[in-house]
Design goal:
CATH superfamily of chain B: Response regulator
Radius of gyration of chain A: 27 Å
Number of strands of chain A: 41
Distance between the termini of chain A: 58 Å
CATH architecture of chain A: Beta Barrel
Number of domains of chain B: 1
Number of domains of chain A: 1
Distance between the termini of chain B: 55 Å
CATH class of chain B: Alpha Beta
CATH architecture of chain B: 3-Layer(aba) Sandwich
Helix content of chain A: under 10%
Oligomer: heterodimer
Number of helices of chain A: 7
Radius of gyration of chain B: 18 Å
Strand content of chain A: over 45%
Number of strands of chain B: 8
Order of helices and strands of chain B: HEHHEHEHEHEHEEHHE
């Protein structure tokens, strides 16, 4: 037998032995690998989520379509682990692991789009509802990282980081048109395209989408709230421009709950360059404010836009370098119309409290990766992010009819925040990964802050990962907190950055296509910035020092932003997800139980609005072929204290009842019309109120002792159509 | 322009003009390697092809940093595996010169798997032509390679890996995945 024929013989022998094993192999192992999630936000580079130095959830475009998701807030609520939003009818608020700081404009969580920070620089806030201004069909996936993220991202990443990744052209080829309507309340029209081409020999692509979202209603019935005699006029309070007031706020709000959001996004890639261009406007109104009832003139308009140019290159086998230049603008304009004498003490006038804030920032970030070993087990990342910020803010009160100015205030300024970070990853053993790093941030207005993170992941046996992370994060006081003042608010002095220290550990086990995760966490917050009500003595001193334009009167109430509180928070979380039947049947469950306590000079109390128990579940079944996919998603929120439960003196103490949101979705291709697909969504809420006290009565009065909580839209049907041009 | 801004601009310019662009190997290399090893076990002809020892050629573009880095990581990953599809294995990192030479090397070494690293986009069509008729599983680090004629390539969509299968090329190279595995792949005809 020749050598060649010997080899062939050996091969066929091996084939005979191995073939049955291979052909009978179950494809579940391969499906499990294909279900592995890859995140980029935890370390600013692609890595497996299981070994990333943070707890994360990936929300895919496919899942968002399947489960009837229509906004970032929806995605977080119905699909993510450890995070939930709370709808205040004004864009919503987000919290993680049982900490939600109401009224913070979402400035404790960082929103990124393709790694670009979206939080505006005047208040540090951002939107997660339709007002986020990210055309929805362009989203490839959303990474939700819970826990501190300042080690790489600097300020604001205290509760977590949400990174929206947009689609590549290869996944969005051709043109696409979307029409979606929630019956009688909203419409969304969207068009986009993805194109690949060569530009001067470099592979290039463009993906783009424009979208217009319009919402009007539903018309909620609010009140009546009886505020009785207005102490300034001695007559019943006015909630309209009518000369004679009734003292009653409420009715059917049919003009004052609306939103309009035009937005556009362009993503361009050419060779090693990437360019993002984004622009959006969010004009919206909520009917729950305590000014003139159902006045459409009380509204907010946010306009924002940015450009982000990135470049990535490998300089040598040792060094990669990434660099980016970016520039952002955010413009916010608000109007608050009120005729109440306590707010507009100018006879029978109606006041408009306009404020206008503009923030602009531009910067550059350079990041190097040093690959010390060929096998990728020892990598150092160094980065520097420098930006210039300027803000301009004005506020006041004017007569809404005549334009006469009653009061004016404002500020403007510029600063140069600078951040430098270092991250070291090391895999000393096949089963052990270590990650340590720190970021130093400073600006000419704030002291230097160091945000370290240490993480270890260990594969303890096949499919089992144990993860432990210690991390710190901070939030620099915003311009509005540092410089804001008003009729009854004095300017802050010496505000220090908020800090959070977090320890967490988790255990994850995969069984084929099934995955379970259980984790524990503990966080301690210090220097939490809040509006503080000055004591009478402090108020007198402030007026004597000329810090307030007000003359001293007995009972005057002045406020000031201060580092007024600390928070302690700990809890457990778990998730289970999986699929069977080659992915036709998919399911998942996320649950968090957390205890959060706030401590200030007056004592310790629970955190309002934040849910202690919350979670979500989802299940879907793809019938296959041209038949539809059936899906059900649910979110559960435990009983929550309303925002003014502890300081309002209401009887009974206002709680938002436990809430169950159900969302059923049928989606699929429209028969006989190639390229046309649909989704039909039904949204059901089990109870009719949320955790926000609405109307003018934010504290108990002799005529109104109980609180009215914000209404919830109980049932809504949405129908969407999408046409994909070839 | 401030001094800092001038320095940052200079670094960006240097990076843009003088540096080599990294290729688009979007799926982490360790995950690509694991997927490749797993996928190979679903190829009905793999065992017969491999015989007693599976030879894996990892092909790099010599002057491409990303290419050599992926090769090193992949080789390190394979080195940790006792077997692939039940057979022992041997890896060789090969610098690409031309398609005919690569095909000849495949025949000579009885390669079971040829992994094409980033940086080879311009040569994929030629490589596929040369390997047609040879019993070998080709895999590529870059998603676009599949459309150009590599049997398997790896992509990242919605934060999850995808396997792209060029079915017609698979037939030409005597690669036959079981239907259960093919259902999990994105198939190009």
């Amino acid at each position: 037998m020749t050598s060649r024929s010997s080899q062939l013989g050996l091969r066929w022998c091996a084939a005979l032995v191995l073939a049955p094993t291979i052909t009978q192999a179950d494809s579940q192992d391969l499906q499990a690998l294909l279900d592995e999630e890859v995140v980029t936000a935890a370390s600013k580079r692609a890595e497996r989520a299981t070994t990333a130095p943070a707890t994360s959830t990936i929300l895919t475009a496919e899942d968002m379509r399947r489960y009837g998701i229509r906004s970032l807030a929806d995605a977080i609520d119905f699909l993510s682990l450890g995070a939930s939003t709370s709808d205040n009818l004004s864009g919503g608020e987000v919290g993680t692991r049982g900490v939600l700081i109401t009224g913070d404009s979402n400035d404790h969580i960082l929103l990124l789009v393709n790694g670009h920070a979206i939080n505006e620089q005047l208040s540090g806030g951002m939107q997660l509802g339709p007002g986020a201004g990210i055309p929805f069909e362009l989203i490839d996936h959303i990474e939700v990282i819970i826990g501190p993220g300042s080690v790489l991202y600097g300020s604001n990443a205290m509760l977590g980081v949400v990174n929206v990744v947009t689609k590549a052209a290869k996944d969005y080829r051709g043109a696409h048109v979307v029409l979606e309507s929630s019956v009688l309340t909203s419409e969304r029209v969207s068009a986009g395209a993805g194109v690949e081409f060569n530009l001067f020999g470099a592979p290039s692509e463009v993906t783009t989408q424009v979208e217009y979202y319009n919402q009007d209603g539903p018309a909620f019935s609010l009140g009546p709230q009886n505020t009785g005699i207005d102490p300034y006029t001695g007559s019943p309070g006015r909630y309209s421009q009518a000369i004679t007031g009734t003292g009653i706020w409420g009715g059917v709000a049919s003009h004052s709950y609306y939103a309009q959001v035009p937005s556009a996004f362009v993503h361009v890639v050419s060779g090693a360059f990437e360019l993002d261009l984004s622009g959006s406007m969010f004009r919206h109104a909520t009917p729950t404010g305590g000014g003139d009832f159902d006045n459409s003139g009380t509204n907010t308009t946010d306009k924002s836009g940015y450009v982000d140019l990135r470049h990535h290159a490998s300089l040598s086998s040792l060094i990669d370098i990434s660099s980016r230049l970016y520039a952002d603008i955010h413009d916010s304009s608000q109007h608050f119309i009120t005729s109440r004498g306590v707010e507009c003490p100018h006879g029978n006038a109606t006041c408009d409290f306009p404020n206008q804030g503009t923030s602009r920032w531009a910067g550059a970030e350079v990041q190097t990766l040093l690959h010390w070993k060929d096998d990728g087990t020892l990598i150092t990342m160094l980065g520097v992010d420098a930006r210039v910020r300027s803000v301009d803010y004005s506020a006041g009160s004017v007569n809404a009819q005549t334009g006469q100015s009653y009061f004016q205030t404002g500020y403007s300024g510029q600063d140069l925040p600078l951040g430098a970070y270092l991250e070291q990853t090391w895999q000393p053993l096949d089963w052990l990964g270590l990650n340590g790093g720190a970021r130093l941030d400073r600006s000419n207005n704030d002291p230097a802050v160091l945000s370290p993170r240490l993480a270890a992941t260990a594969q303890v046996w096949q499919g089992a990962i144990v993860k432990a992370v210690y991390s710190e994060a901070f939030r620099a006081p915003s311009w509005s907190e540092n410089n804001g003042s008003g009729v009854f608010q004095i300017e802050a002095t010496g505000l220090r950055p908020e800090k959070v220290r977090s320890s967490e550990a988790s255990f994850e086990q995969r069984f084929g296509t099934q995955r379970i995760l259980a984790g524990v966490f503990n966080t301690d917050w210090t220097n939490v910035v809040e509006i503080y009500q000055l004591t009478p003595t402090e108020a007198l001193l402030a007026i004597q020092k000329g810090l307030s334009p007000q003359a001293y009167t007995s009972g005057i109430q002045l406020s000031q932003f201060r580092n007024a509180a600390t928070l302690q928070n700990y809890g457990i979380e778990g998730s289970f997800e999986g699929s069977v039947a080659a992915g036709q049947l998919r399911y998942g469950l996320n649950a968090t139980a957390a205890l959060a306590r706030r401590t200030d000079a007056s004592g310790t109390e629970p955190l309002v609005v934040a849910p202690s128990l919350f979670g979500n579940g989802h299940v879907s079944y793809a019938l296959g072929g041209r038949l539809p996919t059936l899906a059900l998603a649910a979110q559960v929120l435990g009983r929550r204290l309303a925002d003014h439960a502890l300081d309002g003196g209401f009887q009974p103490m206002p709680y938002a009842p436990p809430q169950l949101y159900l969302r059923t979705t049928i989606s699929g291709a429209v028969p006989r019309v190639r390229g046309l697909s649909y989704r039909l969504i039904a949204n059901i809420a089990a109870t009719d109120s949320g955790p926000y006290v609405v109307g003018p009565v934010l504290r108990s009065t002799p005529t109104q002792r109980s609180a009215e909580l914000n209404p919830v839209d109980r049932f809504r049907i949405t129908l969407g159509l999408q046409y994909d041009f070839p | 322009m401030s001094r800092i801004s001038r320095h940052v601009a200079a670094i960006l310019w240097l990076a843009a003009s003088g540096a080599q662009a990294a290729d688009e190997a979007v799926v982490p290399v360790d995950l690509q390697g694991t997927l490749l090893v797993k996928a190979a076990t679903y190829d009905r002809n793999f065992a017969a092809r491999a015989g007693a020892r599976a030879v894996i050629l990892i092909v790099v573009k010599g002057d491409n940093v990303a290419s050599t880095r992926v090769a090193a990581q992949l080789r390190a990953l394979f080195a940790k595996l006792n077997d692939i599809g039940g057979v022992s294995h041997e890896e060789m990192v090969v610098t690409y010169s031309d398609a005919a030479s690569l095909a000849e090397l495949c025949r000579l070494k009885h390669a079971s798997i040829v992994f094409l690293c980033p940086g080879l986009a311009d040569y994929i069509a030629a490589i596929s032509d040369s390997l047609s008729g040879i019993d070998v599983l080709t895999a590529g680090a870059v998603a676009e390679y599949a459309a150009e004629g590599v049997v398997l390539a790896f992509d990242l969509v919605s934060g999850k890996p995808k396997i792209l299968l060029n079915l017609s090329q698979a037939k030409k190279q005597h690669v036959a995945f079981v239907p259960e595995a093919m259902r999990l792949m994105t198939v190009y005809q």
